[in-house]
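ok trying again, last paste got cut off:
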Amino acid sequence: MGRTNITRPTEFILLGLSSRPEDQKPLFVMFLPIYLITMIGNLLIILTIRSDTRLQTPMYFFLSVLSFVDICYVTVIIPKMLANFLSKTKTISYGECLTQMYFFIAFGNTDSYLLAAMAIDRYVAICNPLHYITIMNHRRCVLLLVLSFCIPHLHSLLHILLTNQLVFCASNVIHHFFCDDQPVLKLSCSSHFVKEITVMTEGLAIIMTPFSCIIISYLRIFITVLKIPSAAGKYKAFSTCSSHLTVVTLFYGSISYVYFKPQSNYTVKDRIATVVYTILTPMLNPFIYSLRNKDMKQGLMKLMHRVKGQ
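nice, full thing came through this time. structure:
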């Protein structure tokens, strides 16, 4: 291949969810309300938790941070996608693409670490209730929060630096609606060996650490709940975990479908599955936590009454 075909592109073209012109405006009309609902829903969660003293606990502290991260997460992706629905060129500069990829990886992994922190919180609350205040003190919560941000951002920075070293072919068309790692990697002509080794070692460790924490926490919770003699006690213990388990299932289920398969098999179905954890899960989180949580529902009602009173 000649040197003219091996260059670093100044921009990429994002094909989006559909390349058909007649689909663009309907897709814009569909995803704009989703974005607004996600923003409003997660902001309401944050405001409710901050305004109600009964919700000043580690679990709701992590939930408010999760809502903030979800706002950042969708903002990295959806505004550009909405702009491309109404644009004929659908381009994104090389620098914008790497920036979008960086924050997508960072916030996505931050989500998983926060879900792990919430699983640890539920484990302590159910398995060690008498020592809950001592174990989940302010210092440990802040430590978990710092780790949840620092590890994903360092992980993301490493991947972006490795991606920036790649040489790209003549094609600059990304078969996706944002700059995800796999679709961008498919455009590269240079060897992926170093990046693949990094993904299989450092990347796998970063991803599996929070997932393992969640699995271990819930195994311990399950064992503890089985020892509770009354059915009512079992139900009450499990009910405190139901919202978190629902979010974890949605998040990890769609991610597993997309990423735990060979890169060459990345298809349109994977793009649709990606919509679930990048767009739908952040939108559904406020509903899952508010509708299935008595304290959150009461907090939301108090917030609404306070706003109406003003």
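cool. The CA atoms of residues 49 and 55 lie 5 Å apart. Strands lie at 11-14, 91-93, 173-174.
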